[in-house]
């Protein structure tokens, strides 16, 4: 089994799906105090890029507007969001690279630190059916605002991938992983072929030192749509 793994935010997508979804929720009136909410999420995004984010705190804040909402309601809203705000921001080069791996017979998997309710629909827009993402907790068909299981963030991505591989009952003969972030260095260091895509400064330096391939999709701004 050959696997092609892709991070989502700032790798296949020009932007962060959670951040874009936060703005969408504000527009839809799902946020009671939008100014405070936006200021807190922006500060947390800065912490993420600096490698200091406590993801549990970010998720507690950004999943709270879903608490009590039925999965079908959220799914319908996310579908509208993906069509309106996401599909045009997917890198054409990313779509092409996904297609190349598919043509080679590689199994495709998005591995993201964003929540599954966002990651799975965006991956589906790229023709990718399988994802590893943060799992939002659901009780009786309604979101609780909490999460469940190991968070797919930093070393948690490696843990989740190992668990996923065990569930498949097979051993991957070759693993490629595309990412933009130094937060993904644990998984980038685990795979056979790490690829830095639109890398942040720390990852760019590691990729240079290690001789990893580097792709700059944002520079040409070649987006789909």
SSE diagram, text form:
Layout: E1 2-6, H1 17-27, H2 34-49, H3 55-62, H4 71-86, H5 92-103, E2 107-115, H6 116-125, E3 131-139, E4 142-148, H7 155-168, E5 174-179, H8 185-188, E6 193-197, H9 201-210, E7 214-215
Parallel strand pairs: 1-2, 1-5, 2-3, 5-6, 6-7
Antiparallel strand pairs: 3-4
Q: In a nutshell, what does this entry contain?
A:
The protein has 225 residues and is an alpha/beta fold. Helix content is 45%, strand content 19%.
Structural descriptors:
225 residues, alpha/beta, seven-stranded mixed sheet, 9 helices, disordered C terminus, Rossmann fold
Structure in words:
Helix 1 (17-27) runs antiparallel to helix 2 (34-49), helix 1 crosses helix 4 (71-86) and helix 2 packs antiparallel against helix 3 (55-62). The chain has one domain (2-215): HAD superfamily/HAD-like (Rossmann fold, 3-Layer(aba) Sandwich), CATH 3.40.50.1000. It is globular and about 50 Å long. It has a seven-stranded mixed β-sheet, with helices on both faces. Helix 9 links the parallel strand 6 and strand 7 (214-215). Helix content is 45%, strand content 19%. The protein contains nine helices and seven strands; from the N terminus they run βαααααβαββαβαβαβ. The chain has 225 residues and is α/β, with parallel strands linked by helices. The relative contact order is 0.18. Residues 221-225 have low confidence and may be disordered.
- Across the major sheet, the strand order is 4-3-2-1-5-6-7
Poorly predicted runs: 221-225
Rg: 17 Å
Q: Give the overall form.
A: globular
Average of per-residue pLDDT values? 93
Major sheet: 7 strands, mixed
Q: What class, by secondary structure content?
A: alpha/beta
Overall strand count: 7
CATH architecture: 3-Layer(aba) Sandwich
Order of helices and strands: EHHHHHEHEEHEHEHE
Tell me what portion of residues adopts beta-strand conformation.
15-25%
Number of separate structural domains: 1
Distance between the termini: 32 Å
User: What is the CATH T-level topology?
Assistant: Rossmann fold
| Count of individual helical segments | 9
Helicity range: 40-55%
Q: Return the CATH class.
A: Alpha Beta
